[in-house]
Design brief:
Blueprint lengths: L9 H14 L2 E3 L17 H5 L2 H7 L7 H6 L2 H14 L6 H12 L9 H8 L4 H12 L1 E5 L7 H9 L7 E6 L1 H5 L3 H8 L10 H18 L1 E8 L10 H17 L3 E5 L1 E2 L12 E2 L5 H9 L5 E5 L5 H10 L3 E3 L9 H15 L15 H25 L7 H20 L1
Parallel strand pairs: 1-2, 2-3, 3-4, 4-5, 5-8, 8-9
Antiparallel strand pairs: 6-7
The structure holds D-fructuronic acid and zinc ion.
The site of zinc ion (ZN) has 3 residues, from loops.
Length: 417
């Protein structure tokens, strides 16, 4: 019998992985945050943390207040209600509630006091520019991808006026109304000077491409993106399939940009909850498989909203080098599911995916979303490097650092190049 191979102790792997994950800054590849030049569009502070739509959904499980009364309250009053119902009358143990507390705790605030006015007073001392830097430091984030829509009048006005870009913020061109509300959007494009008609004739397609090119340039967009319902089909009967084939894919090829599909959102399942009323549904990934197989020159980024689709999506990424999967999106972003998805993706794909994005809508959320994600990524990586070490293949500190850098944005950047 051969002597057993002496192996690197698990404690050493644990300390190396923990330090690599903690010290590697992330490229957060999908958020709803804005460059500070957008002013009030960039949400931050305790009240915005409390009225986050994840918490709005949760408060309506415990309050009898009619939704229409809630929407008439000021932001401060809504935050007071949520604080009272979800943090004082009940223990705040859901992931979204815990997130608020992790954020406050890492900011150095004493959450034991349960003192909302004192928290408000603390936040009111910050200047936004300094606070952006602080949240990025505490979240360990080096770059933030915004979600930019030429269809949002408030945002559009800022782009049209022009501003000096903060180079920590990159742009992604969001095209949901173009794909999901055509032909209504055709009227909007026509109003902006593009010769389009509701019917998708050749002139209309080429004018849509001119529109996409104009905004890709204005934003310096790094990718195009859309969120799609569970019943999305490609090829399919709706205008979105034709638009993707004839306008989006050729545009992305010409500009060398990936097209990001986030599939599985059931918009306005409960409309009275507004943004909090969106739900999730299982999708048919044949649509994505058809896209990847039919457009090998295109690059696709994808994430899906139903737990039931996750394994199939990871298998699909094994088949197509032009598909990069990312993030544990929205209802998937709870520790139990994040852990299972991260482990499964590593086992199927190695390091060629992006395990997490924050989807932050409020700046301060960078702190908890990345802190919670890092805990799980660390746990899974320790397990995987330890299993590797058991074969005699001892990972070096540099190899671990390289791998972590890939997981936290490096692999995404290589994919986009
Ligand atoms: O479509 C999206 O980008 C979703 O992430 C949002 O619509 C959603 O409201 C959200 O914030 C989820 O985290
Ligand atoms: Zn999002």
């Amino acid at each position: 019998m051969a002597e057993p191979i002496p192996r690197i102790p698990r404690a050493l792997i644990e300390s190396q992985v923990t330090s690599a994950v903690a010290s590697t800054t992330a490229y957060d590849i999908h958020t709803h945050l804005y460059d500070p030049a957008f002013g009030n569009l960039l949400l931050w502070g305790i009240d915005d943390l409390l009225v986050y739509h994840y918490l709005v959904a949760e408060v309506f499980r415990v309050t009898d207040l009619p939704t229409e009364t809630f929407w008439k309250l000021s932001k401060t009053q809504q935050a007071d209600l949520i604080w009272n119902e979800l943090f004082i009358q009940n223990s705040p143990i859901s992931e979204a509630c815990r997130g608020v507390l992790t954020t406050l705790n890492l900011l150095g605030l004493d959450v034991r006091r349960r003192d909302l006015p004192a928290l408000r007073a603390w936040f009111s001392q910050w200047k936004l520019d300094d606070y952006v830097t602080r949240c990025m430091e505490l979240g360990g984030v080096r770059k933030i991808s915004m979600t930019n829509s030429p269809f949002d009048p408030e945002e559009r006005a800022v782009w049209e006026q022009g501003f000096g870009r903060d180079d920590r913020f990159t742009a992604a061109l969001r095209i949901d109304p173009l794909l999901l509300e055509w032909p209504k959007t055709s009227g909007q494009l026509a109003g902006w000077g593009y010769s389009v008609e509701p019917g998708l004739n050749d002139t209309t397609i080429s004018e849509i491409r001119r529109f996409l090119a104009d905004w890709t340039r204005k934003f310096n967009a790094q990718y195009l993106m859309v969120s799609l319902p569970p019943d999305f089909m490609f090829p399919g009967p709706g205008p979105e399939a034709v638009l993707i084939e004839k306008a989006i894919l050729p545009h992305c090829r010409e500009h060398g940009l990936p097209f990001a599909l986030m599939i599985g959102v059931q918009r306005a399942q409960n409309p009275s909850l507004r943004l909090a009323g969106d739900g999730s549904g299982r999708c048919d990934l044949t649509a994505l498989a058809n896209l990847c197989a039919g457009a090998l020159e295109n690059k696709f980024l994808a994430t899906v909203l139903s737990r039931e689709n996750q394994h199939e999506l990871a298998v699909l990424a094994r088949k197509f080098g032009n598909l990069h999967i990312f993030g544990c999106w929205w209802f998937m972003n709870i520790p139990w599911v994040v852990e299972e998805m991260t482990r499964m993706r590593i086992e199927l794909l190695g390091l060629s995916f992006t395990p997490q994005h924050s989807d932050a809508r409020v700046l301060d959320q960078l702190i908890y979303k990345w802190s919670h994600s890092r805990q799980i990524i660390t746990k899974v990586l320790v397990e995987k490097y330890d299993a590797l070490a058991a074969t005699g293949w001892e990972p070096t500190q540099n190899e671990i650092a390289r791998d972590v850098n890939n997981l936290l944005g490096g692999a995404f950047e290589s994919f986009c190049r």
